[in-house]
Amino acid sequence: MADAGERTACLYEGNRMIQQKKLQLEYCCLQGFYWMLYCVGVGYLNAYLTGVGLRPGTVGVISAVCGTLATVVQPFLGKLADRSQRYGWKMQLQVLLVLCMGCYLLLKLFRGPVLSGIVCGLIFLILNVMMPFVSGVGFYYEKAGIVVNFGAARGFGSLFYSVISYLLGFL
What we know:
By secondary structure, the protein is an all-alpha fold. The protein contains six helices and no strands. The chain has helices at residues 4-43, 45-51, 56-83, 89-109, 113-143, 150-168. It is globular.
């Protein structure tokens, strides 16, 4: 029969395994939902904006400008996340998500080519700025001694992307 110390160690190990599986599932869901947003905001950018009246060349300019801005903004936010406890990656990711959702809401409320182009450009920018934070969550866990499977989480991202893309194809 096991003594109290062995039972406690066994319970601790079991609890740690449950926590690790919970974090893995959360990381998979984070990747999945991020890539769903990416599909909607980036994968269908041209289809949406040409549908509201913009020319494909204009959509290309919006993508290029906002993609370039993302490469400027993201390193600044990354450095801020590394150096600040108050504005860490979690808070920044949450703020970016709220901004992104606000942009999607604006698209639903107001339809016009110019406003749609600006708002979709912001979505494009925000989603590209978010990408390193979403991918970096795995490294954060690893640094804390928690093993997560990035490949499985990224697989969820691909699965969720394909499901939302399939569903959007019917719209």
